[in-house]
Amino acid sequence: MALRLGAHITTADTEYGTVLLDQRSGEYWELNPTGTLILRTLLDGGDEQDATDALIAEFDIDRSRGSKDVTELLTQLRSCGLVS
What we know:
The protein has 3 helices and 3 strands, in the order βββααα. By secondary structure, the chain is of the alpha+beta class. A hairpin with a 5-residue loop joins β2 and β3. It is globular, with a radius of gyration of 12 Å. The termini are close together. This is Lasso peptide biosynthesis PqqD family chaperone.
């Protein structure tokens, strides 16, 4: 099952990345380019491995770092109720 944003979450692209707004609470989160790439890959139907591969290709980092970044962002997005 592909990752989806909560129905109450809107996004806006910025020069630096992406902003996520929780319309229920008014809270917002700003994702840097790394976070944006992870989120876009997952929203487009990719899995955690695809997001890690995208990070490695875009930012020339090692696999363990990429995998850790993906896992940490997903954990934060889920704990804040931004994605399902």
